[in-house]
Amino acid sequence: MRYSKLAVGAIGALSAILLGGCGSKSASTAKKDSFSWSTGAEISTIDMSKASDTVSFDQLRNTMEGLYRTGKKGKLMPALATKSTVSKDGKTYTFYLRKSKWSDGSPVTARDFVYSWRRTCDPKTASEYAYLFEGIKNAAAVTAGKKPVSALGVKAEGDYKLVVSLDRRIPYFKHLMSFALFFPQSEKAVKKYGDKYGTASKYMLYNGPFVQKGWTGSNLSWKMVKNKYYWDKKNVKVSKISWSVQKTPSTAYNLYQSNRLDALSLDSSQTKQLKNNAAFTLINSGGTAYLQYNLQKDKNLANANIRKAISLAVDRTGLCSTLGGNNQPAKTFTTADLLYVNGKDYVSGVAKSSTVYNKYDKKLAKKYFKQGLAELGTSKISVSILADDTDSGKKTVEALQSQLEQTLPGIHVDTVTVPFKTRMARREAGKFDIMVSTWIADFTDPISFLDLLTSDNTRNYGKWKSSQYDALIANSKATASSSQRISDLQKAEGILMKDEGITPLYYMSTAWLIRKDIHAVYNDNLGGWQFKYAYVK
Length: 537
Fold this sequence. Notes:
By secondary structure, the protein is α+β, with helices and mostly antiparallel strands. The protein contains 15 helices and 26 strands. Strands 14, 15, 16, 19, 20, 21 and 22 form a seven-stranded mixed β-sheet that branches.
């Protein structure tokens, strides 16, 4: 799923965490049926075809609904699908839908899924996430503009029967269906609002537990209000959730202390000071923070030895300590604990020889940097590191600047921190040297990470390329053997790490305070908050 806490995809095999906190009901903003919540960055869009970050997807997973919902411990729960069948060859799925309504009272039908999927895959929409439809019949040809959207392998048989045809078996297909990208959209709303669709709360129709109110497209506070047309409204106990963007943890904590905020993420100093507080909880985000290099723009960073030197100069343990939470130093792009194969973590099967550069080794860093400079025919280079203007973003680039300049004689590092929307725009325009990025899995499979670095993926902003890597990823999608598939993915990740196509920093975990009178809010451990069953007591 995408931008995350620092800078987004999400279903979890990991345990969901039930959250509590400290402070009594009378000592918080929480009332009988409402509470307040914070996030670290602004919303970019609530158009699911164009969303690409955690903040936006948090809004979508609570105001919209698809075939399935992610439950506790990553378990798939029926949502709009009451049942489903799968053909013997695993290539045809039939979903039977319950009767439900949009927030204007009109019915949600199978045709809304067909329209939504076609819209996302339409090249005119320019969805960054359209590649996730690959494997559905003709999806690749549709997104490439080689076939019309009507050729996409999805059809409605009546109002409440949805049939999906695949080009190949997709082991994680049902898990994909709980990701907001695959939710329905109202064609009536899209056509009514045109270019404004998804740019503000009022330019949408919703079909989830809540409807969004008060987001204008640029403001930093809004609300989620209980949807009176939601099919399961009897199980939605909260009438209102007040949201605000809090980029500075100290400000957020002051609001919490003054009873104007009920939940916030903590920085490193707060984590240390408050770890014994009854409200304290650690959230496994199911993601990896990493450095993305612009190989197309910067010839210095196109040199593999320079990238290896940078990676070796990063003290990941020190960085994790600076940021707080429970972040763990990363050696792979795929996050740890995402998928277990025969009882072993998938990442343990990525060749250790390929991850040797993802450790702190000042002597080796100097060696590779010297080699890289010689190959470039220069004695010094300058780079800039781009990140969000959040507290953690600023701390990250400052730490990296210090570590690189102290370890690598001849490198000058500039730091650039900008609002999230600005960083997204610069990323997509290729206006960066090195960018602090994060990726949270959209489903419990390494391909959610590794697909990003294939040569033709629209999210491969740094333009790293490897024909061997591409071939292994393609093979992993074609083989019918589960063991061969995992082997292909591990070999591909080994190639990525050996060439330092990206530099993993840490596996993400965040520390939060949530008041004890707020119950049954859970995080799916892959970046997504779920509020459907929340209540205040």
